[in-house]
Amino acid sequence: MKLFRNPKANKSVALLLGLTLLLAACSNSNNNNNESASNTPSNETPAADFSYPMTGGTELTFMNEQLGGTPESLPIDDEYAKRTGIKIKQLGGTPMADQKFSLMLASGELPDIFLNTWLQYPGGPDKAVEQGYILKLNDLIDQYAPNLKKALQEHPEIDKMIKTDDGTYYAFPFIRSEAGRVYGGPIIRKDWLDELKLGIPETIDEWHTVLTAFKEKKNASAPVTFRTMFLGERTGGFAGAFGVMGNFYINDGKVVYGYLEPGYKDYLKTMSQWYKEGLIDKDFASIDAATVDKKMTSKVSGATIGWQFYIEKYNSAAQETDPNANFVAAPYPAAVKGELPEFGQLDNAYAGTSSAAISANTKNVEAAMRWLDYAYTEEGSMLNTFGFEGTTYNLENGKPVYTDLVVNNPEGLGSDQVMMKYAHGTNFPMIQQDNNLPAKFPQTAESIGIWKKTNHESHLLPPVTPTAEEADEMSSIMNDINALVKETELKIILGTESVDNYDKYVQQMKDMGIERALEIQQAAYERYMKR
Fold first, then answer.
1. CB 255 within 8 Å of CB 522
2. pTM greater than 0.70
3. What distance in Å separates the CA atoms of residue 93 and residue 188, rounded to the nearest whole number?
4. 508: Cα within 13 Å, side-chain hemisphere
5. Within 13 A of 32's CA, how many CA atoms are on the CB side?
6. C-alpha–C-alpha distance, residues 238 and 170, integer Å
7. Are 361 and 26 in contact (CB under 8 A)?
8. Spatial distance between the Cα atoms of 377 and 51, rounded to a whole number of angstroms
9. Residue 229 neighbours by CB under 8 Å, 6+ apart
10. Which residues have CB under 8 Å from 519's CB, separation 6+?
């Protein structure tokens, strides 16, 4: 995808019903705000006469689901305020599925801008607009967001992703670059492999051999460690070798649910056997990211599944005490050597995350639109990607070249840590550019090419939008099914449930309505393909 030329917990039914009731209770009173806010006050600036920075000293509140507590103010925040003329008061946020989010909506005390995953809103983003919580942006984009509008005209594949079936634009999107769609996979200690005279594993059988050697010859008490999120839902994990993945995906134009497929039972049987043999961390069901990090860098574990920056982090930490430590990416395992696994990790360019919707209650519609639209200007794109000219980069022959603050940071910070202060590389409403950040370890840069080698693209379900009625029905079906599959998965791997009983859980999913959920997803997929 060619972008600007200038150089990313299951709830109970009771919680879902509580959320629905809270939304409904506020729907009527908020709906009037939605209608009035989308009308343009006569004192706002005509699009043709506007230029940054905006005058008037407007301050907006901005809630980011990924930030808890009181977010730290960074240099990029001050620079954004200077360039746009709009000050932002950042608020700690909460994910869409958290009850705190529903309580905030019910209170009526809403931020001007919400950064969240609006595809997960109960009833879908159309329902959020209908209920009067966020604005429909179609006319407002025409009035106040010429840069987003231009980007969508130039990239119809993006335009198709970020609206609902009836054409409603509901948020400013975070769009990943083509290179940014893959960012995670298996990670392994190559220095251990070299010592044991073993190659990087490529198949499930080779992984079994390697992990057994880590246990028996390196005395690793947890040869492979990971969190449950990496089992087979966020990534294909080891499940891809069995031709399956958790969640919904596409097979030859049909939506399927991986947990129903025979290959998933085979995958669970293998993972259960590995756990019984002591190859999988006995604590994996309950550990957090920090514990995984500690195990990986203290010789307790020799492999994991994680994100690209973990490689940089692990090598930096481990080499302080063991200069020979060498963490590298390993390919997603295949069933047969030389074949590609069906699944790995791959996001849609628009996955729905970090989407900025504007509150229907805001008194500053134009300012909110202008602040968000700045990210889609060429100047804003450069700032978000490369930071501050003269500080994090200089232009040489028209191309940005990183300074020593980034490349050889005097405080020993990694390039990604520096750029988090001076730019928005990810998880911000914008169209991401490839920034080619320098890595301290070449293993980091090499990882993406290794993890890309799967057939995942052919199975990727696009960001479909079921109708409000369909979305409500999907939620009522999937809430309990999601809880069931996670519980069953853990029981089988931990050995408290026989894998032979998996068929009864497949039937239970059918009794709970999974086939109806598949019908809804299929209909939404077919509508999406006709956009």
1. yes
2. yes
3. 34
4. 13
5. 3
6. 36
7. no
8. 11
9. none
10. none
At 337, list the tokens: 């050597």
- pLDDT over 70, % of the chain: 89
Residue pair 170/465 in contact (Cβ under 8 Å)? The answer is: no
Q: Which two tokens stand for residue 111?
A: 């931020």
Residue listed under structure tokens 């908020």: 30
The pairing of strands 184-189 and 303-307 is: antiparallel
Give the type of residue at 317: A
Q: Range with the lowest mean pLDDT among 71-75, 154-158, 217-221?
A: 71-75
Contact 327, 189 (CB under 8 A): yes
Cβ-Cβ contacts under 8 Å for 88 (sequence gap 6 or more): 59, 60, 61, 62, 77, 80, 81, 371
Q: What phi and psi, each to the nearest 5 degrees, are found at residue 261? A: -80, 145
| SS3 category, 60 | strand
87 phi and psi angles, rounded to 5 deg? -85, 145
Determine contact, residues 151/514, Cβ cutoff 8 Å.
no
Tell me the CA distances in angstroms from 468 to 122, 125, 461, 524, one per residue in order. 8, 8, 19, 11
| Residue among 64, 147, 60, 95 at smallest CA distance from 424 | 64
Residue 71, both tokens: 């977010």
Task: Find the mean pLDDT for residues 39-60.
Answer: 73
When the pLDDT of each residue in the chain is averaged and rounded to a whole number, the result is 89
Burial of 349 (0-12, 13-18, 19+ CB in 10 A): buried
Sorted by sequence, the CB contacts under 8 Å of residue 447 that are 6+ apart come out as 185, 187, 308, 311, 328, 329
Q: How many residues are given for the chain? A: 531
What are the structural domains, with CATH classification, of the chain? 13-178+350-377 (3.40.190.10), 183-345+456-529 (3.40.190.10)
Both tokens of residue 453? 């080698």
- Residue 235 CB burial class (10 angstroms; 0-12, 13-18, ≥19): buried
**How many CB atoms neighbour CB 473 within 10 A?**
18
CB 203, CB 335: distance < 8 Å: yes
Q: Report which residue type is found at 406.
A: V
DSSP for 239-272, written as a single string: GGGGT--SSEEEETTEEEEGGGSHHHHHHHHHHH
What does the pLDDT read at residue 69?
59
In whole angstroms, how far apart are CA 13 and each of 119, 135, 477, 483, 502? Answer: 19, 28, 9, 10, 23
* Separation between Cα atoms, residue 69 and residue 74, nearest integer Å: 15
- Least reliable range by pLDDT among 147-151, 234-238, 509-513: 234-238
C-alpha 483/C-alpha 10 separation (Å) is: 6
Report which residue type is found at 20. Answer: T
Identify the weakest region by mean pLDDT among 27-36, 153-162, 188-197, 422-431.
Answer: 27-36
Least confident of 94-108, 140-154, 463-477: 94-108
Place of tokens 């990882």: 447
| Tokens encoding 230 | 């990496």
Apex 492 CA angle, 489 and 498, nearest 5 = 140
